[in-house]
Amino acid sequence: VEWADAAGRGGWDDINNYRLNEPAVCRSAGYLLEKNKKHIIIATSQSADDDVNGCITIPAPWVTRFSVLRK
């Protein structure tokens, strides 16, 4: 999943420098738990008993690219 995330900076700076900010481009890979119109949920690890760990929920409007690596 490639997705855009909020990015920021801290401290005093000229306002024009802040206008140069762009969203961060993030890439996450894992086991697809759910994909719908609202969000995508992936887990980074899955046990043999189907327990999962390291889950992230990414809002669908933030997703810029989605690929299935293996079924």
What percent of the residues sit in helical stretches (DSSP H or I)? under 10%
Q: Supply the number of helical segments.
A: 1
How far do the termini sit from each other? 15 Å
What would you call the shape?
A: elongated
**Strand order, largest beta sheet:** 2-1-6
Radius of gyration of CA atoms, rounded to a whole number: 16 Å
Poorly predicted sequence stretches spanning 5 or more consecutive residues: none
Name the helix and strand elements from N-terminus to C-terminus, one letter apiece.
Answer: EHEEEEE
The percent range for strand residues is: over 45%
Please tell me about this protein's structure.
The chain contains 1 helix and 6 strands, in the order E-H-E-E-E-E-E. The strands form 2 sheets. The chain has a 3-stranded antiparallel β-sheet, with no helix packed on it. A 3-stranded antiparallel β-sheet has the order 3-4-5, with no helix packed on it. The chain is 6% helix and 45% strand. The chain has one helix spanning 15-18, and strands at 2-5, 24-27, 31-35, 39-46, 52-59, 63-65. The protein is mainly beta.
Any key phrases for this structure?
single chain, 71 residues, mainly beta, three-stranded antiparallel β-sheet, 1 helix, 45% strand
